[in-house]
Amino acid sequence: MSNQAEIIKSLTKRITDLEASYDKLLKENTSLTNKVAELEKKEKTDACSPSKKLFSDLFKRNKTDKNVTETNIINAIRIERSEEEKKCKNVRFKRKETTTESTPLLIELNEEKSRIDILKRSKNLKDNETYNKVYITPDLTFAQRELNKKLVEKRNELNSKNDANKTGYRYGIRDYNVVKIKVVSQHNSD
Asked: What would the mean pLDDT of 67-88 be, rounded to a whole number?
């Protein structure tokens, strides 16, 4: 009989412990349900108001214009890279859709010196009747264009604060850096 009493006492203790665990889990579940409801409510209000754009938003919008989205994603990733890596080529996914315009021709050169030489000589094409409608420009990535924009702003700001006649120099952009350039004054003595 004492054996049965011990078993009943043990089972009663286990049931009491299980009820305590159940109450604890029920409270935790209620708390988590409330948190989820608050977050869902916040997400709905955030979706209505224009705020910060998420990287994932690039995938949700413009499903028909997938190539532009892919280009924007690649260029956005390049912004985060170091300046040296920003100088890599842009990616073209498809040709122009209008048939009246010619498609740009992308030429990659092995040497930087060749690229600079061709870009310097390209301004002479406008004087030639055969090639006066041919334009040669560097194919800059989104990151390079953004970097150039910032460098030009910085250069212009520094030059506006600087009097080249007094200091003997002005600011220019060389190899993706703003540098001082010595000004050679040209005085005409008549």
From this structure: 58
CA distances from 190 to 102, 134, 183, 186, 187 (A): 52, 42, 22, 13, 9
Q: How many CB atoms lie within 10 A of CB 167?
A: 11
Amino acid of residue 40: E
Element housing 171 (H / E) = strand 169-174
3-state DSSP percent of the chain in helix, strand and coil, to 5: 55, 5, 35
Alpha carbons 177 and 84: distance in angstroms, whole number:
12
Structure tokens given for 29: 């579940």
Alpha-carbon distances of 33 from 26, 30, 45, 70, 134, rounded to whole Å: 10, 5, 19, 38, 66
Name the pTM for this structure: 0.35
Nearest to 138 by CA among 130, 129, 148, 128: 148
